[in-house]
């Protein structure tokens, strides 16, 4: 155990920020690397009030370290807005495709209504789709954080959350082992911030802060909409299949893959680091590994990627035949 040099509160040796006054107790090596310091250096400015939800979403893109520092202080609801913006741009993908389909003798009003119907169908579908995708991301990155730093165990102890003894969750979170490492002062300070006792990890706001880490999908969906709008060829209604074999889809899928491999894991690392007050590098390694696995399973194995050129299933079948 050690003590904060600013306020004197007791802190365990694995803490990087004082739980009482927010003083920066120690600095990780990754925070001192010139290029990476902009992303990973912990904010040292005093926090006064939370940013607006739209500003928080924007800052996860251009100032992520401060964004998650701010979100962790007051976890307001903004996750629904992130979901809806993603659904909006996904719906616009359908509009972009519809623009490139020509139908002989169709009035402009009819074409507009067709585009609107496509947008609404894709908008509603994508709400369900991204709800499932976000749940998969939550589960996967949570597993990575539990293996790398036993995050759920840290949160369970600090917020005094009771878990069943011998349960799988307790085993994976490492709560029993961590209980001897986290100071009583830290547990009391975190517990005092809560208006009522917590019973689940979810109540700590862990998943709310994680959802802000998925904002790069908004950027990718917007870029995808622009690419489809500009780069798709124009075909009549008997050649719609040609639109979905365009190379532009390969570009979009590769952008999605790179986002899931690099960008999202970095933001998830910052989010979980803030709520767990734990090691950045260990979290980052686990999250990048999960990002690679998810990218391979959810994106690079799509049957239509690259119209066959980058279809890994087709390549494997061709190599074994």
What does this 3D model show about the protein?
The chain is an all-alpha fold and 321 residues long. The protein has one domain (26-320). The chain contains 15 helices and four strands. The protein has helices at residues 34-40, 53-62, 64-73, 79-99, 108-149, 151-158, 168-173, 175-178, 184-192, 206-211, 216-231, 240-243, 248-276, 280-300, 312-320; strands at residues 2-3, 10-11, 101-102, 235-236. A two-stranded antiparallel ribbon has the order 1-2. A hairpin with a 6-residue loop joins strand 1 and strand 2 (10-11). Helix 5 packs across helix 14 (280-300) and helix 11 packs antiparallel against helix 13. The radius of gyration is 23 Å and the shape is elongated. Keywords: Membrane, Transmembrane, Transmembrane helix. This is TFIIB-type zinc ribbon-containing protein. The chain crosses the membrane at residues 80-101, 113-137, 209-231, 251-272, 284-301. It comes from Promethearchaeum syntrophicum.
Walk across the major sheet and give the strand order. Answer: 1-2
Q: Using DSSP, what is the number of strands?
A: 4
Please, what is the oligomeric state?
Answer: single chain
Q: Summarize the main sheet.
A: 2 strands, antiparallel
Spans of at least 5 consecutive residues with low confidence: 306-318
Overall mean pLDDT stands at 82
Q: Helical residue percent? A: 55-70%
Characterize the overall form: elongated
* Number of separate helices: 15
H and E order = EEHHHHEHHHHHHHEHHHH
Question: In whole angstroms, how far apart are the ends?
Answer: 62 Å
Protein name: TFIIB-type zinc ribbon-containing protein
Keywords: Membrane, Transmembrane, Transmembrane helix
Transmembrane segments: 80-101, 113-137, 209-231, 251-272, 284-301
């Amino acid at each position: 155990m050690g003590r904060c040099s600013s306020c004197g509160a007791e802190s365990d040796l694995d803490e990087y920020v004082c739980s009482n006054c927010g003083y920066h107790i120690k600095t990780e090596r990754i925070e001192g690397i010139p290029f990476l310091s902009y992303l990973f250096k912990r904010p040292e400015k005093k926090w006064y009030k939370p940013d607006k939800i739209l500003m928080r979403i924007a800052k996860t893109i251009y100032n992520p370290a401060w964004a998650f520092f701010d979100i962790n202080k007051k976890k307001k609801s903004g996750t629904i807005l992130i979901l809806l913006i993603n659904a909006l741009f996904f719906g616009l993908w359908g509009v972009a495709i519809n623009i490139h389909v020509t139908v002989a003798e169709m009035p402009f009003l009819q074409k507009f209504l067709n585009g609107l119907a496509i947008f609404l169908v894709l908008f509603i579908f994508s709400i369900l789709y991204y709800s499932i995708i976000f749940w998969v991301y939550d589960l996967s990155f949570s597993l990575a954080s539990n293996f790398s730093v036993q995050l759920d165990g840290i949160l369970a102890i600090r917020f005094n959350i009771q878990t069943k003894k011998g349960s799988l969750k307790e085993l994976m979170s490492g709560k029993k082992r961590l209980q001897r490492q986290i100071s009583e002062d830290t547990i009391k300070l975190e517990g005092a911030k809560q208006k009522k006792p917590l019973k689940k990890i979810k109540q700590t706001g862990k998943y709310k802060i994680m959802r802000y880490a998925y904002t790069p999908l908004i950027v990718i969906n917007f870029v995808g909409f622009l690419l489809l709008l500009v780069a798709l060829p124009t075909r009549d209604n008997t050649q719609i299949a040609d639109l979905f074999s365009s190379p532009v889809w390969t570009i979009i899928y590769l952008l999605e893959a790179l986002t899931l491999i690099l960008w999202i894991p970095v933001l998830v690392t910052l989010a979980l680091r803030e709520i767990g007050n734990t090691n950045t590098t260990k979290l980052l390694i686990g999250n990048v590994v999960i990002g690679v696995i998810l990218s391979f399973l959810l994106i690079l194995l799509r049957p239509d990627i690259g119209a066959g050129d980058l279809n890994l299933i087709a390549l494997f079948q061709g190599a074994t035949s």
